[in-house]
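New to this. Please check this record:
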Amino acid sequence: MREPSYMIILPMDEKDIDNPNIFVENIEKNEHVSIQNASMDEERGFLLDVLVDGKPYSVVINPVNVQIPPYVRPQHAFSDEEYRMIEETKEGVSICMDFDEDNARCFRDQLRIIDAMCPNILAVLDGPSEKMLLGRWVALAARTETLPSPRYLFTVQAISDDSGEVWLHTHGLKRCGLYELEILCSDKDRFNEHYRIIETFAYRMLESDEGIKPGEAVFIARADDEYLVCTAVDWKEALTYYPQATLGTAEDRDDEVHDEDTYVIMMYRNPDEEKARKYTPVQEFDEHLQNNPMFMISVDETDRMRRLARERIPFMIKAAQNKDNGVLLKIGLVVDEEYWNEGKPQREHIWFELKEVKENGVVAELTQAPYYVSGMKEGDVGTYLFEDITDWIVFTQKCRVTPDDVYLLD
C-alpha cells in the first residue's frame, strides 16, 4: 500500500539545477543534512544517501520537464508574479524517497533535503497530495523545529456535478502506508463540514501507532450533546448505502487511484451498531453540524500546534503592533476536575480576542462559552501566559495569517 513520496522542485533560476554537483555543494553547507554517499545510476538517476539530523534516507534525483497537471491546487497564497513564473518554468528536479512510520518527520525531512539542495526555490509540486507548495513556505518549514501540520501529508479533493452532488476523497495517505478516505453524496451546502470529518479521520489515522482498521470506531466530533462516531467502509460496500450516488460509482474508478485501498467514512449511531457492523451514512449527522460542532483534536496535534504557535509568536507580536490588524488567540483552559483523565488536568482550547500584549503574556477576551469550564462565559476578559497559547490568527487588511503561513507577514 505504501507509495513513494515524489516531489518536483521548481527553481527560481533554472541555472540552479543545471548540475548535481551544485546540490552536493549546497548540502555540504547545511546544518541538518549530510551526504553519506552519492552516485549516478544510468537507469534510476542521481542517487543520494543522506542523514537528516541523524536519520538515514535514500533519495533519487532526476531532471524533469515541468508540466503542471490541471488537478494540482496551490496550498498557499501565491502572488501574481509567482504564478507567472510557475507558468514559465520549463525545467525542474524530481526528488523521490520512501517514508517510514514517522510520516510527519519524513515529510519535513524531505523539505529539509530540498531546502539544502536548493536554498532559494519558487515552489514545490507535491505529487502524492497534488498540491503546489510555495517556496517561501518550504524554506520556513524546513528551518522550523516544529513539524508541519498533518494536513500537508494529504489533500481532500471535491468533485461535483450540475446537480450539486459532491464526492470528497483524499490523495496522499498511501505514501504514509494508509488507505485513502472518501465521503459519498455530499453537497454544495454541506461539503465544508464533511471536509472537516474526513480531515479529522485522516488525522486520527496518521497519529495512530497501531493503525485504524476498517470497521473500527473513531470519535470525530460532538454537537448538540450528540457524538459523531465514524468508521471506514470499503467503497464497494458503502455504495450499497448510497443507491442515489452519481459520483464515486464504479464508472468513476477506472484507475488504481480510486479503485484500490480507498474507504468511505460512515457512522455508528450506538455501540450495538458497532458490534453488528451496521453502518449509517454520515449525512444522518448533518442537522448537528450547523450548531458549532467541536471536532476532535488529539493531544499530539494540539501540542504540535502549540509548539508552532509558540515558536512563531514573535511574528504575532510584531503584527499586533499594527493597530489595523486584529488578532485571535486559542488558549488552553484547564477544564473542571470532573473531566480530568485519571486525575490529570485536561485543557479545552478556546478562541479569545487579543486586547493587549504584556511582557510575559496577553490580555484577551473570550469569544465563546467553553463546554467543560464552568463559571466562564463569552466576553470574559483575563490575563494569560504565552505558554497557554496553542494557536493564533492575525487578520490584516489584506489576508488572514496563522503560524503556518507567517510568510504573508513579510
Q: What stands out?
A: The chain has three domains: 5-148, 154-295, 299-409.
